[in-house]
Write a structure and sequence with these properties.
Shape: globular
Number of helices: 17
CATH topology of the largest domain: Rossmann fold
Low-confidence stretches: 361-365
Structural class: alpha/beta
Number of domains: 2
Strand order of the largest sheet: 4-7-10-3-11
Radius of gyration: 23 Å
CATH class of the largest domain: Alpha Beta
Strand content: 5-15%
Mean pLDDT: 91
């Protein structure tokens, strides 16, 4: 099944790894968990099993962060993953849910239009009109389904949801129950149920969580990659995975090209060159690791279908411009300054300088 869909879920894509870990996992498991906490950490961070099976890393970062997240899920507390864009919050939440409950698809996507029904329950109005209120007419939300099955529910971009919708989680998280007053009963969560929510640091103040809701979560902050080498590793591995999934007939991206994109992003994010000698204007965008992966992947597509199959400066230029220049005025000035003060002065980046100069900035805003 995973070969016939565009993006298989984590439990489909890594089914063989999950089965291999389960086969050698002899540690105690919390109720309804598919793997022990130690095995979940091994699945997320990767490594080699006792039988020689290689487990690919799903998250590159501090081991203690993953251990704290898994330990939280083993208690009665919900988990909140917080970080700037591109720090793999959604990616980590998906793989944690896949490893713990074997199902990462119980997701509520937070937006300005997310309704309370998406968090609690809705109704099949045809049956409601024909038969009146009944359990058969009730349409459970992903959270309600997770409560009934003892699974992990995921809430993506929690602070993008209206405050009143966010607060509908308070009873679920504190009482582990969801009242259905129309039917005069409540759904009580079975062991194993928990919630993983993600929130973006850039969205603070958009729909800030109430203190009552925040107290129901254990918060784990996911930092950006600490070093350039770590970020290069993440971008290279994820780009190669996406290239295979999209069946792009291109060579895997060369580490030199990945490093150039990562260095451009890190220098513009930090407002200075890597050696600290040149101060730079910061663009308005986040320039996250996820966007670096997108630049590399789109470059691979250009190289595969309109080039010689090898990712180079010409393929990177348009992606870099699209990622950096979000505001026509301020970002264009920041990008031009960076090209002239940094890119042009690096002898081995002259091809990138020429490729970027050849693109018309007027098309990027």
């Amino acid at each position: 099944m995973s070969e016939s869909v565009l993006r298989p879920s984590a439990e489909q894509q890594y089914a063989a790894e999950l089965a291999a870990i389960a086969a050698v996992d002899d540690r105690p498991k919390p109720p309804m968990w598919k793997l022990s906490p130690q095995a979940v950490v091994r699945y997320v961070l990767g490594g080699e099993l006792s039988d020689g099976t290689a487990i690919t890393p799903k998250y590159v970062g501090d081991r203690r962060i993953v251990e704290v997240a898994v330990a939280t899920l083993a208690t009665d507390r919900a988990l909140l993953l917080v970080g700037v864009p591109g720090t793999a919050k959604s990616w980590l939440s998906e793989h944690l849910a896949a490893a713990v409950s074997g199902d990462s698809t119980l997701v509520v996507q937070g937006t300005a239009g997310t309704s309370e029904e998406s968090v609690r329950y809705g109704w099949n109005y045809a049956r409601l009109i024909a038969e009146g209120p009944s359990e058969a007419a009730l349409v459970p939300s992903p959270i309600l389904r997770a409560m009934r099955t003892g699974a992990i529910a995921r809430v993506e971009e929690l602070t993008r949801m209206p405050s009143e919708v966010q607060d509908s989680l308070i009873t679920v998280l504190s009482e582990k129950a969801l009242p259905v007053p129309e039917l005069n009963f409540q759904v009580q969560a079975v062991p194993g149920f928990s919630v993983i929510a993600t929130a973006n640091d850039r969205d603070r103040g958009v729909n800030q969580m109430s203190s009552a809701l925040a107290r129901r979560f254990n918060t784990v902050v996911l930092p950006p990659p600490a070093t350039e080498d770590a970020e290069v590793q993440i971008v290279a591995s994820r780009s190669a995975q996406l290239g295979r999934a999209l069946q792009l007939p291109a060579e895997p991206p060369a580490l030199e090209e990945v490093r150039r994109v990562v260095r451009v992003f890190r220098e513009l994010r930090n407002g200075s060159t890597v050696d600290g000698r040149t101060q730079l204007k910061k663009p308005s965008g986040s320039l996250s690791t996820a966007e670096a992966i997108s630049v590399i992947t789109s470059g691979m597509a250009l190289a595969a279908h309109f080039g010689d199959g090898r990712l180079g400066a010409d393929e990177l230029a348009s992606g870099l411009l699209g990622a950096v220049v979000k505001d026509r005025v301020s970002d264009t000035a920041a990008w031009q300054e960076y090209l002239e003060a940094v890119v042009k002065e690096r002898p081995d980046w002259r091809d990138l300088y020429r490729a970027c100069q050849d693109h018309d900035l007027a098309g990027y805003a």
